[in-house]
Amino acid sequence: MLIIGLTGSIGMGKSTAAARFRKNGIAVFDADAEVHRLYAGPISAEIESAFPGAVEDGKVDRAKLSVLLLKKPESFKDLEKIVHPRIRQGERRFLQAEHARGAQMAVLEVPLLFEAGGFEKVDVKVVVSADSEIQRQRVLPRPGMTTKKLATIIARQLSETEKRTRADFVVDTAGSIDNCNSQIDRIIAKLSARTGQAYDKYWRD
């Protein structure tokens, strides 16, 4: 089974690209969705212990947690120590299930694929990318988003130039959704005959 790592900064079009992979019958593990699930209860006590006041009614309040992180950006590392191992567990369960059903490919959609070291455990790295002004236009209108918050998010990630350099494939998402979809379709076609080694090396057990 070929494991594809799909990544890109906030507002770059990961969800659009992931939807196209799914449209082609390829399952996608959504790391952001897994974080939402974990915040809804499984790790709320740990989060509250590390970030007092971030949990309400047994669930992590993302807005409150965001405020705490913005006040002390260095505490992102404390959050990552709690969240990242749980994400890895979710990825492992997903990949083992896909392998068991005989899937030819599977996608890990992970915003911090390079930054968190996950790039070492996939066979192919796909980066979605657009210029910074398009990113701002897409992200700043979102509820709760501010220029400072966006800057903090971007500061934690590799530059677009570095991501593009490390990628096996770059999907330019500055244009239309149809254009993005066409690029994903071409990538899938190119990968259709390839086999992967990452599953046996990192995820089987």
Nutshell version of this structure?
By secondary structure, this protein is of the alpha/beta class. 52% of the residues lie in helices and 14% in strands. β3 (55-56) and β4 form a beta hairpin.
Report on this model:
- By secondary structure, the chain is an alpha/beta fold.
- It has one domain (2-196): 3-Layer(aba) Sandwich (Rossmann fold), CATH 3.40.50.300.
- It contains ten helices and seven strands.
- α1 packs across α9 and α2 (31-39) packs across α5.
- The radius of gyration is 17 Å and the shape is globular.
- The mean pLDDT is 94.
- Major β-sheet strand ordering: 2-5-1-6-7
CATH superfamily: P-loop containing nucleotide triphosphate hydrolases
User: Overall mean pLDDT score?
Assistant: 94
Number of helices: 10
Describe the protein's topology:
Layout: E1 2-7, H1 14-23, E2 28-30, H2 31-39, H3 44-50, E3 55-56, E4 59-60, H4 62-71, H5 76-100, E5 105-109, E6 124-129, H6 132-139, H7 147-155, H8 160-166, E7 169-172, H9 177-191, H10 198-203
Parallel strand pairs: 1-5, 1-6, 2-5, 6-7
Antiparallel strand pairs: 3-4
Summary tags:
single chain; 205 residues; Rossmann fold; five-stranded parallel β-sheet; 52% helix
